[in-house]
Specification:
12 strands, 244 residues, 23% strand, alpha/beta, single chain, 6 helices
């Protein structure tokens, strides 16, 4: 977070359009039970090696999980997100949220960032200029002013840590075991929702599945192979590789 800011929602609905909303494990269950589609986003890194952003070391370690990858080990971060390529399915004709009292944590803390290493910048948000010229103080200096909002932010970050092992186990059970390297891109899966909901309802054990890293740069692939990691550059069939 950066300079002092105020914020007042204008109700424009732009933050609810064209954004995939990260979900906690419990929220993903509710989304699936309501016949919503979930997109699974995965990125990986090596502890103190390729993909590790040193300035975010503690943060990324706490929200990642160790997996087998070739003859070595990678750590993966998994995001279950509500799939909203257009308008959120819960917006009504007046751009009002029909699940407002049960909306996901990420929606509750908007426009604050989940990642403590990403500053809140109004120019990076979809809100109109007047949203930043009205409403109560949001940030003073580098601190959130609203204690309740601060508690929600911390709850969101803690859920990332608490849920990661279960999210990895669900991915393994459904064969979603190819990741991109953090900083180079991520892999995106659209799981069949009946199978996804069943895995969430009865969380599987971590079966120690073998993971693969999708990379398209030869030099990067060579670096990963030198660490004993398994890579692929084959065109994906069951997932999308979103490169940076």
């Amino acid at each position: 977070m950066n300079d002092s800011l105020r914020f007042g929602c204008t109700g424009c609905g732009k933050c609810c359009t064209g954004h995939h909303v990260p979900l906690t494990l419990a929220e993903a269950r509710r989304w699936a039970d309501a016949n919503g589609q979930v997109v699974v986003l995965i990125e990986a890194f090596v502890t103190d090696g390729p993909g590790m952003p040193l300035e975010q070391r503690e943060h990324v370690l706490r929200r990642s999980h160790a997996v087998r990858c070739g003859a070595s080990e990678a750590r993966v971060s998994v995001t279950f997100a509500a799939f909203n390529p257009g308008r959120c399915r819960n917006l009504d004709d007046n751009d009002l949220c029909t699940i407002y009292d049960e909306r996901p944590l990420v929606c509750r803390i908007y426009p604050v960032e989940i990642n403590p290493h990403i500053p809140l910048r109004p120019e990076n948000k979809d809100c109109p200029p007047e949203a930043w010229q009205q409403g109560p103080a949001l940030i003073h200096g580098t601190q959130l002013v609203d204690a309740e909002l601060e508690a929600l932010v911390q709850a969101s970050r803690q859920a990332d840590r608490d849920d990661i092992a279960a999210k990895v186990a669900v991915c393994q059970a459904l064969g979603m075991t190819t990741s991109a390297l953090k900083g180079n891109g991520f892999t995106a899966y659209l799981p069949e929702m009946a199978a996804f909901a069943a895995a969430l309802a009865q969380l599987p054990e971590d079966d120690g599945a073998q993971w693969t890293l999708h990379v398209q740069d030869d030099a990067l692939a060579a670096s990963l192979l030198a660490h004993g990691l398994r890579t692929t550059s084959e065109p994906p069939v069951y997932y999308a590789f979103i490169g940076f």
